[in-house]
Design brief:
This protein is α/β, with parallel strands linked by helices and 350 residues long. It folds into two domains: 30 residues; 311 residues, Aldolase class I (TIM Barrel), CATH 3.20.20. An eight-stranded mixed sheet has the order 1-2-3-4-5-6-7-8. A two-stranded antiparallel ribbon has the order 9-10. β6, α7 and β7 form a beta-alpha-beta unit. The termini are far apart.
């Protein structure tokens, strides 16, 4: 009996080791095949910054991931032509509203607390109403603590704030320069419209309709020597997220790419010098390429310089899909991924 028990114990251990080896092998394989800022096929993607938790089950310790904060790139279409864009318009597909809601509900049930809608340009589809309905659903039906949007700002109208503003916590507008000529060189422009004037207009609407205002900037060869401190301090966003220009194979680099972003790339040293020049801006949140880690509701992994997608959460559920997202909890926290993201908790002076 003792011998049989010992053999059984050894067999269980062997099977556990084999399962672990297979899990690592499959994770390694999938990390080399879809991305995390969005994936293959159609146009809607999920980049995720989950929180990893360890749960004891008897003597075994299994790792589980919770998609606490999710970026949903539901469209690839955009009216700007930014030369460094890493999520290009390879398709015009947008997931139907009901299916999008179903995926968001699955994410909420798996622990999502913050959703960020992006693109492409998210206000382009259905003149912003599709986006507004998703915002309302996430806040009113799913009761998420934080709902945010990243936009270039060119398509936003005041009536959108009047209809959907109550349910939006944060609106981030992308602005890479406070010089109109530089924005034109980058491609962040539409005709002769002033991107900077529009930025100020949206900032005032955010104040009026009680939406926290945020600015995102991609630092590249055309703006790396610019001093933006005075303008940022004047606009006073709750966060100024500063990214180092990133190359993603098949998106803005490589033979199949729709952009050629190599000429926009700066070194880590140049990026650090830009950050040092703006050290006096309290809302600055930097994100270099060393810290960066989505198509039909897929999690994406960009660790290998590509956008490698998991299976869709609509097909396999959140837990299975997120296993291949390449999440690094320590890096997520290090780059300021967890912060006060509900406007109810921000203590804003409207």
């Amino acid at each position: 009996m003792r011998l049989s028990a010992a053999i059984a114990s050894q067999m269980r251990l062997l099977m556990q080791l084999l399962a672990d080896a297979l899990r690592v092998a499959f994770a390694s394989f999938f990390s080399k095949v879809g991305y995390g800022r969005t994936g293959a096929g159609a146009g809607t993607a999920l980049s995720v910054t989950p929180v990893e938790r360890k749960v004891d089950e008897g003597r075994a310790q299994n790792e589980m991931t919770t998609p606490t904060s999710v970026n949903y790139h539901f469209t690839r279409q955009c009216n700007y032509k930014c030369g460094f864009c890493f999520h290009t318009a390879k398709t015009s597909f947008v997931l139907p509203l009901d299916e999008a809601k179903r995926g968001l509900k699955l994410l909420k049930e798996s622990g999502m607390e913050k959703i960020n809608f992006s693109g492409g340009e998210p206000f382009l589809h259905d003149k912003g109403d599709f986006l507004g309905k998703l915002v309302q659903y996430c806040k009113q039906d799913l009761r998420l603590p934080s709902v945010s949007i990243v936009s270039n700002g060119s398509m936003i109208k005041e009536k959108w704030f009047q209809k959907y503003g109550d349910d939006l916590d944060i609106l981030a507008i992308s602005c890479d320069s406070f010089d109109e000529a530089t924005n034109q060189l980058i491609g962040r422009a539409q005709g002769r419209k002033s991107h900077i004037d529009n930025l100020h207009k949206i900032c005032s609407w955010c104040q009026q309709y009680r939406v926290a205002f945020k600015i995102n900037s991609v630092i590249n060869t055309f703006n790396v020597d610019e001093d933006m401190a005075e303008n940022i301090l004047q606009l006073n966003p709750v966060r100024w997220k500063v990214f180092q220009c990133l190359l993603i194979d098949g998106e803005n680099a490589g033979e199949k790419a729709l952009r050629e972003a190599e000429r926009f790339v700066i070194s880590e040293q140049m990026f650090q010098e830009f950050l040092e020049r703006h050290i006096g801006v309290p809302c600055l949140v930097p994100e270099s390429n060393e810290k960066v880690r989505d198509e039909i509701m897929r999690f994406l992994d960009c660790r290998e310089g590509r956008k490698d997608p998991s299976k869709s959460i609509l097909d396999v559920g959140v837990k299975e899909a997120i296993c291949f997202s390449g999440f690094d909890e320590k890096m997520f926290l290090k780059r300021g991924g967890k912060y006060v993201w509900s406007k109810a908790d921000m203590k804003m002076e409207w």
